Each structure stands twice: as structure tokens, then as C-alpha cells.
């Protein structure tokens, strides 16, 4: 099963002088159990696109199927399908509002009608998952936390809904490198342990290179590429047309290849790059 | 979507009305509104309506947009129409219990509605064709004579500029927070009054926090640039009168004189 978008178009402020076509006939599939990255420059329509995944925005044209159910309909089946998709927006810490962290995380589960025991259980699990010690933090105000902790508390609020599809809009924006790394590792663990499908919105190609199974490139409201990272990063033209940059590793590998080192040049992560370089040097007989 | 609201929204354009100096527009609008409520000759109503329609056409605004600006005040117009309908003495047409509807009442009600519509429509043309920044600059310079008696014209204009500048930002922010909370399963549109009021808390708390944060950041940013209120500040964009303003003044004077002539001769 999957999230399937069929010929989606979306127009902001139709029939006014400010009319703007944000999405133009987009058809993509987010396969279940994979990490799919959506990349694009500012204003390419990434954020507009993901708001369609759980019905926050209704497409001007086209249909969206979540596990085969049309989420545009107004029945309980469609509502249940919309709830399979959890979205973590940019800077999610700005949505915190409760007196205590535990209450804030419990907001989601309570809304979808979990029992009190179930809610508490989910809160504990979610806090545990984002490394916020329950005993220490549960009854503190979310506004006393540091920036990174607030971010994690807000993300726990979505995780407590236990979505089948987790959409992350620039989840690491504004965090330091260490915080970025550890947060991405947590999402990877969620993906591995619970099989959660992850959609990662980012313009950080290094992040995409190290985590994604699929890459979708958006440019001015259109999909210009839907491919594996390996394939995507070999098409430098399309990437730079979309206003993006290749991952640093790939750039270095391209330079090496240009300067005469005979590498396969398929690598885009650090580990694979090291392997390729060693292999190339070995063939040259230098290692 | 929430950000789709046109609230005093500026429509960029190149019409003569757009090009006019904002101060001239405000002064002429003020005189026009006074005229609308002063002159009560039936021919004058025709002239004033024609004037308003002329300005709409000249401004190149979509007519529907201007008409839509009347919508929020529709109930007030209807209410005052109703009051005049039944409270004006004269030739009775219709009677319900103690209320008498008169012919004069219909005419009077129609006139008062027309006055309100003209006032609202012309004011919204001012809002539609003038950027908020120019508008507050103009208000400041029109109010500046009052500085002599200690009236804080500059500070007031600055506050208005900031407030207007942040309306779209806060609307966008509200929209974002509503969506974030909806993604957490909150139903803001469902339920009875109390449920909906309770549903607003998860939106209002983050909104207030972010408004205060923005205010704080803005204050620090202004402080860091050594901002100091009114005294001896110069502007990047000087307000100057151009040909179009003199033309507008001339045409408006002819308009006004013809109103006065009609009023006192016919």
C-alpha cells in the first residue's frame, strides 16, 4: 500500500490578482515502508504538497489515495485514512501550548479517542523514543525546555498518534550538527523498528543522500525527477536546474573522476565513497 | 484558507488613482464623505454616485472586489434602512401593529443606504489603491501639525505601520498553527459553541507566544539600529505632489462646485 497522488494541482487565492499555481499536475507515489525524500528550492511547492497528504489542503484538481482510500471524501473511512498520515511541520515547537509536556503530547491521542490508559502509555513511549526522560520532564512546562528539547517534545506529540506514514518538513532546521544527527538517527530507528514509512522534506542533499531510498525533485510546482538517490545524483543538470546542490560527497567524487582517478562514481555517502576510492587506488596498485 | 481574506488589502496597479499622493487621496475622500452626508438634493445623489463609479472604473479595480468590501457592513445598512422605513412620518402604505411603513420612509431609507454604500465603497478604494506604508506616512504628515500640542503623530503612525505589517504575518502564523493542531486530530470546525471555544485554546496560546516573541525580536532589532522616534527623521521616499494630484484636485473642485450649484439652485 502507499500514498498515491493523481494529477494534483493546487492554486492559491484563485480568482484574485494574487492567484498563484503552486502545484501543477503532480502524480507521485510514496511507497510503504520506504524513506522517500522530497527536495526542492524555496517556493517549489514542497510544503503545499505535503499538506495534501492528510487532507489539510484540498487539491484544486486531482485525487489522493492513502492505502487505496480517497481521502477527499467525507466519510469515516476517509477520516481514518487521513489519520494514518502524521505531519511534523517546520519548527514544530511553535505548536506547543499545554501546561506540561505530558499533557501536550497527550493532546493528539486524546483527540483521536484513545482511552486514558492507552494515552498515558503512548505518551511514555513517545517521550522515551525522543530521549526525554518521563520522570524528569513529564510534569514540566514545555516552555522551560531548550530549543532542541522543545523540538523533540513537539515531535513526540506527533509520534504519540502512531502514524503509519510520518511526514517530516525540514525536521532538523535550526538545530546544531549534533542535534541534527541524533534526530535523524531516531527517525531511522523508527523506520527500522516499527516499519514506519517516512517522507522527508529537505533541501539538505547530504541528509537525503544518507537516509532516503527514493528522491522526488520538485521545481516550480512540477515533479522533475522521481528516482533512486544513485540515479538522481548522477543527473546533475536536473538537480541544479531545481536550484539544489549535489551532496558534498558526490561533488568530491565527481572532481576526483574528472582529475583522472578511475572510480565507478556511484557513491553518494561517506562510507561507500571511501570504499570506491580504496578500490580505485588498489587497482592502480598504490594501496 | 485563512490568508485568503482581503482585509484592507492593497491591490498593486498603475492607474492614475494608484499614482496619486496618499495625502491628497485622504483629504479628497474626507471632503467627499462630508459632501455625501451634507447634500440632500436628489440630482446630487446621482452626481455623487456617478463620481464614485467613475473613480472605480479609473482605478482599474475589479468591480466585484469593491462591491465585496460592502459585504461586512451589509447588516448595518439593512438595519438603518429598516429603522428609516418605519420611523419616518408621512403617507402610510403599510401597517403592522404599531409600526407604520411610509412612502417617505422608503425614500429616506434608500437614501441613507446609498450614503453608507458610497462612504464604504470610496473608503475601500483608498485602501485598495494605496499601500499601507504610504497610507500611514500620509496620516503622519497630515497629523504632524498636531505635534505642536504634544500629539505623538510619528509614534502613532509607526505603531499603525507595524500593526498593519504584521496582520498578514499573524494570519499566516494562525493558519500554520491551526493546521499543525488539526494534524494532531483537533476538530476546530466541529461541535457546539463551547467545544469550538475550547478548540481555540491550542491555537491561541501558541499564537500569543509567537506574537510576543516577534514583538520582542522587533524591539531588539529596532534598538540595535538605534531607532528613535519622531524628531528629525528623514524619509527614504519623500512625499511629493505630481501632475496627477493637481489634475485630481482640479477635477474634484469642479465636481464639488457643481454639487454646490445644484444644491442651491435647483
What value does the average pLDDT of chain A take?
Answer: 90
CATH class of the largest domain in chain A: Alpha Beta
Distance between the termini of chain A: 48 Å
Oligomer: heterodimer
Tally of helical segments of chain A = 12
Work out the radius of gyration of chain A: 21 Å
Q: What portion of residues of chain B is helical?
A: 55-70%
Total individual domains of chain A? 2
- The secondary-structure class of chain B comes to mainly alpha
DSSP strand content of chain B: under 5%
Enumerate the spans of chain B where pLDDT stays under 50 for 5 or more consecutive residues.
Answer: 1-7
Protein name (chain B): Transporter
InterPro entries (chain B): ABC/ECF_trnsptr_transmembrane, ECF_transporter_component
Pfam families (chain B): CbiQ
Keywords (chain B): Cell membrane, Membrane, Transmembrane, Transmembrane helix
Q: Would you mind describing this structure in some detail?
A:
The complex is a heterodimer of chains A (287) and B (266). Chain A has helices spanning 46-50, 76-82, 101-111, 116-129, 134-137, 147-159, 177-194, 205-211, 229-234, 236-241, 248-258, 270-284; strands at residues 2-12, 20-31, 35-40, 61-66, 69-70, 85-88, 165-169, 197-202, 214-219, 222-227. Chain A has 287 residues and is α/β, with parallel strands linked by helices. Chain A has two domains: 2-244, Rossmann fold; 247-287, no CATH class. In chain A, helix 4 (116-129) packs across helix 6 (147-159). The radius of gyration of chain A is 21 Å and the shape is globular. Chain B has 266 residues and is mainly alpha-helical. Helices cover 69% and strands 3% of the residues of chain B. Mean pLDDT of chain B is 86; it is low at 1-7. The A-B interface holds A 12-13, 16-17, 51, 54, 56-57, 83, 86-87, 89, 92, 94-97, 107-108, 111-112, 143, 157-158, 161 and B 1, 3-4, 6, 11-12, 62, 65, 173, 176-177, 179-187, 201-202, 205-206, 209-210. Chain A: GO terms for molecular function: ATP binding; ATP hydrolysis activity; ATPase-coupled transmembrane transporter activity.
Amino acid at each position: 500500500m502507499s500514498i498515491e497522488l493523481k494529477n494534483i494541482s493546487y492554486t492559491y487565492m484563485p480568482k484574485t490578482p494574487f492567484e498563484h499555481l503552486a502545484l501543477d499536475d503532480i502524480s507521485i507515489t510514496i511507497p510503504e515502508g520506504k524513506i522517500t525524500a522530497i527536495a526542492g528550492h524555496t517556493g517549489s511547492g514542497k510544503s503545499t504538497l505535503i499538506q495534501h497528504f492528510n487532507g489539510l489542503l484540498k487539491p484544486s484538481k486531482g485525487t489522493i489515495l492513502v492505502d487505496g482510500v480517497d481521502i477527499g471524501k467525507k466519510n469515516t473511512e476517509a477520516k481514518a485514512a487521513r489519520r494514518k498520515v502524521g505531519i511534523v511541520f517546520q519548527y514544530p515547537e511553535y505548536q506547543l501550548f499545554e501546561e506540561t509536556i505530558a499533557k501536550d503530547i497527550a493532546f493528539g491521542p486524546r483527540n483521536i479517542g484513545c482511552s486514558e490508559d492507552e494515552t498515558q502509555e503512548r505518551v511514555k513511549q513517545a517521550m522515551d523514543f525522543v530521549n526525554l526522560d518521563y520522570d524528569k520532564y513529564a510534569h514540566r512546562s514545555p516552555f522551560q525546555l531548550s530549543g532542541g528539547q522543545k523540538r523533540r517534545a513537539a515531535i513526540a506529540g506527533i509520534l504519540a498518534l502512531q502514524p503509519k506514514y510520518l511526514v517530516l518538513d525540514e525536521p532538523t532546521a535550526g538545530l546544531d550538527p549534533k542535534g541534527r544527527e541524533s534526530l535523524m538517527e531516531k527517525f531511522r530507528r523508527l523506520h527500522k523498528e516499527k516499519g514506519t514509512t517516512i517522507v522527508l522534506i529537505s533541501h539538505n542533499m547530504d541528509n537525503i543522500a544518507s537516509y532516503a531510498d527514493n528522491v522526488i525533485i520538485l521545481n516550480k510546482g512540477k515533479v522533475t525527477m522521481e528516482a533512486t538517490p544513485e540515479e538522481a545524483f548522477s543527473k546533475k543538470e536536473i538537480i541544479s536546474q531545481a536550484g539544489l546542490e549535489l551532496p558534498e560527497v558526490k561533488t568530491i567524487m565527481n572532481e576526483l573522476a574528472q582529475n583522472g582517478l578511475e572510480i565507478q562514481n556511484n557513491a553518494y555517502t561517506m562510507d561507500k565513497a571511501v570504499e570506491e576510492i580504496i578500490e580505485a587506488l588498489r587497482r592502480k596498485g598504490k594501496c | 484558507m485563512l490568508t485568503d481574506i482581503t482585509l484592507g488589502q492593497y491591490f498593486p496597479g498603475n492607474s492614475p488613482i494608484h499614482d496619486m499622493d496618499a495625502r491628497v487621496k485622504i483629504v479628497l475622500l474626507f471632503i467627499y464623505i462630508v459632501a455625501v452626508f451634507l447634500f440632500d438634493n436628489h440630482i446630487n445623489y446621482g452626481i455623487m454616485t456617478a463620481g464614485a463609479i467613475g473613480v472605480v472604473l479609473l482605478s482599474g479595480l475589479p468591480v466585484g472586489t469593491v462591491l465585496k468590501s460592502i459585504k461586512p457592513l451589509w447588516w448595518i445598512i439593512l438595519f438603518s434602512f429598516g429603522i428609516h422605513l418605519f420611523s419616518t412620518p408621512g403617507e402610510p402604505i403599510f401597517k403592522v401593529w404599531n409600526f407604520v411603513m411610509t412612502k417617505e420612509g422608503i425614500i429616506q431609507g434608500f437614501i441613507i443606504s446609498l450614503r453608507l454604500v458610497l462612504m464604504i465603497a470610496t473608503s475601500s478604494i483608498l485602501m485598495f489603491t494605496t499601500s499601507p506604508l504610504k497610507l500611514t506616512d500620509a496620516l503622519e504628515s497630515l497629523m504632524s501639525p498636531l505635534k505642536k500640542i504634544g500629539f505623538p503623530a510619528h509614534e502613532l503612525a509607526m505603531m499603525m505601520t507595524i500593526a498593519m505589517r504584521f496582520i498578514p504575518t499573524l494570519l499566516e502564523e494562525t493558519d500554520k498553527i491551526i493546521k499543525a493542531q488539526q494534524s494532531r486530530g483537533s476538530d476546530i470546525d466541529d461541535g457546539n459553541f463551547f467545544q469550538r471555544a475550547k478548540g481555540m485554546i491550542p491555537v491561541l496560546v501558541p499564537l500569543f507566544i509567537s506574537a510576543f516573541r516577534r514583538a520582542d525580536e522587533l524591539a531588539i532589532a529596532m534598538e540595535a539600529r538605534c531607532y528613535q522616534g519622531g524628531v528629525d527623521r528623514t524619509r527614504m521616499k519623500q512625499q511629493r505632489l505630481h501632475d496627477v494630484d493637481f489634475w485630481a484636485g482640479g477635477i474634484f473642485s469642479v465636481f464639488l462646485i457643481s454639487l454646490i450649484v445644484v444644491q442651491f439652485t435647483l
